[in-house]
Amino acid sequence: MTYALRAVQDAVQSKLAADSAVQAALGSPVRLYDHAPPATAYPFVRYGDQRAAALDAKDMTGMDISFTLECYSRYRGRKELRQIEEALYTALHNQTLAVSGAGFGQCQFE
Questions:
Q1: Could you give the 3-state DSSP secondary structure of residue 92?
Q2: Hey, what long-range contacts does 48-57 have (CB within 8 A, 24 or more apart)?
Q3: Which of 28, 45, 57, 100 registers the highest number of CB atoms within 10 A of its CB?
Q4: CA gyration radius for the chain?
Q5: What is the DSSP letter of 42?
Q6: DSSP character for 7?
Q7: 3-class SS at 77?
Q8: Nearest 5°: CA angle at 91, between 90 and 96?
Q9: What's the rounded Cα separation, in Å, for the pair 86 and 96?
Q10: pLDDT for residue 54
């Protein structure tokens, strides 16, 4: 298995960009950034901390990959953030991702 963190991030990007609820919350094209450009329109989501750890066994190799999605909003209170979180959850939790160059096991929202 290859180091797949970038491929997983690309798969997440594709999954979220194609989701209508995420588009409703974050615009189209979806405002999801590795690094948000200056003067980015709100709301938006940014990739935060990322981690990849070997998950090997006697008869297989794999990786446990986790990362944070950080939500940014100028809305007073948390209503808009919760709507964004719900859209992200629905689009990703227990869903299959098409990861280029690697097999894919499970996507969980924590």
A1: helix
A2: 50/5, 50/9, 52/3, 52/4, 52/5
A3: 45
A4: 15
A5: S
A6: H
A7: coil
A8: 115
A9: 18
A10: 86
